[in-house]
């Protein structure tokens, strides 16, 4: 395949993550009872503004979106999935090869559909998860990490905060321009110590794995539009 810069992710040493409500209360006062033969009147109920008919309801479009937690649960279920001796044969590569997107990216990058069966597959893993969750329009799909990152940036969903469920793009030498991107995965959490925990396909072991990565190797993050 031409120009698919989806190099394997190097091994990393796992680090420990550190985790870190304010409860509000209201009070009311009762008026003293009056000494009288007249029966005490029932207290007046405070009138609260009526809620709109659709309050607390999600739109059909929002209900169709997965939450970040739901997407990450599916991604983590794939942990342990491994490529074959040729560096391919995963269900992610097979799915991408047969997808309409493959025809578009072959036209863009050259090669042929069959080439995806043994191509580096980190971006195909991310794309597959989004497709399985019915969230292609917000997670995106591509086989080339650089173009994938540009898609998020062009849609104003690009930034520097490691939010859970964000699509994270790496450059192993710590370069910050999009053209230097070499690998992609999902953020599970920010560990608060200069590292993030991720789930990635096509790691250095040729598998889907959970990894801990230094944020110094992150080029940026793409933010799918998840349901709250």
Automatic annotation (TrEMBL):
Q: Which Pfam families match?
A: CHAP (PF05257)
Q: Which residues form the signal peptide?
A: 1-29
- Name the UniProt key words of this record, in alphabetical order: Signal
Keyword flag Magnesium? no
Task: Please name the source species.
Answer: Nonomuraea typhae
* Annotated segments matching region Disordered: 42-62
Sorted alphabetically, which InterPro entries does this protein's record hold?
Answer: CHAP_dom, Papain-like_cys_pep_sf
Is the keyword Calcium in the record?
Answer: no
Chain ranges of the Peptidase C51 domain: 97-225
- What protein am I looking at? CHAP domain-containing protein
For this protein, the record's Gene3D superfamilies field holds: endopeptidase domain like (from Nostoc punctiforme)
Q: Which domain of life is it from?
A: Bacteria
